[in-house]
Amino acid sequence: MVREGFSVARLARIDTVLQRYVDSAQVAGMVALVLKDGVPVYERAFGWSDREAQRRMTTDAVFRIASQTKGVTSAAVMALVEEGKIGLNDPVSRFIPSFARSTVAVKSDTGRVVAPARRAITIRDLLTHTSGISYGTDEVVAPLYAAAGLGPVAGASGWYTADKSEPICTTMSRLGTLPFVAQPGEKWVYGYSTDILGCVVEKASGLALDAFIRTRITEPLGLSDTRFFLPAAQRARLAAVYASRADGTVERAPDGPRGQGDYVDGPKVSFAGGAGLLSTAHDYARFLEMIRRGGALDGARVLSPRAAELMHTNMVGALHSTDGLGYGLGFETIDRFGANLLGTEGSYGWGGAYGTLYRVDPKEGLVMVLMHQTMPSRTDLNTRFPTLVYQALVQPRRP
Fold first, then answer.
1. What is the pTM of this model?
2. Is the per-residue pLDDT at 82 higher than 80?
3. What is the second-level CATH architecture of the domain 2-68+223-392?
4. In CATH, what number does 72-210 get?
């Protein structure tokens, strides 16, 4: 039987494989969701939301989405670009003055040389991760970042700020005084760029980042479970974080920044545009469906079609990858069929450090979301899950 272009029998393979990850204790639990032209063709929950509490995973479970926040913050930036409040070529220093004197650190015979940046870092650099700004874990700058409360001492790999009692703009202003690891525009460097953009949104709009995202993106789209911090009354909906052991099985992660995090009982002050949001598979799929449909969904327009398209159009050439992957103003792009397993040319996506991932295939009308909470994770689900979806698509539209 074929439904919406998918073989029902082949879709059942997804059940078998994902359940295997739970049964072998590689993950505690997960939620998988696939939309075809906006209609769910596959939605399942597997395993445990909290294994120790014997709480089963449900499709409405809330997950820490970490770097999947970047797509939402990038959409917020593009909305302000369309209002004329931000320009893609604006220097970041227009909004955060400490970036007016950016520097770059390089290794030398004596240890470290710090030189002025050859040009200003722009909003476009931040959106495409070509600003030269890392998470401060690089050996050449790590001690400087640690002294400033960033990088290695800031929780999981530097990006975690949920436990901070200072606003994100205070943190990012301090970041602007530190040296970066590459000259603007010369390399693709993953790091604090989108957290900086979160501060830019605040400065340009006059609203806190959580308020801007709520009023301009999540409320219009009906994303009632996407927010930076969870109300205490909904604590039981938040899936627990698990950490991989050396043998590949998982154990419950400890409390604190390298484990469960401060998403319920924390200060609730730092709105990290690069990694701070919570969401559900359903909510994030609706956000992606809005992008896929050209910036609007169910009568709510967030972006123009042109702005939405720029977010998943490669802007960096081969700086991000030499094997057919690029990066747009918010998403990693697939520029060649076969570059990322079965993904169609023009597809885009990314993931999050806690084990969440997504792919969008405009030509096939597909949105794929998989969420689990494993950090660090040693599974291959980021490639296995999309492959399972594509193998079930027996009537593709792609010529």
1. 0.97
2. yes
3. 3-Layer(aba) Sandwich (3.40)
4. 3.40.710.10
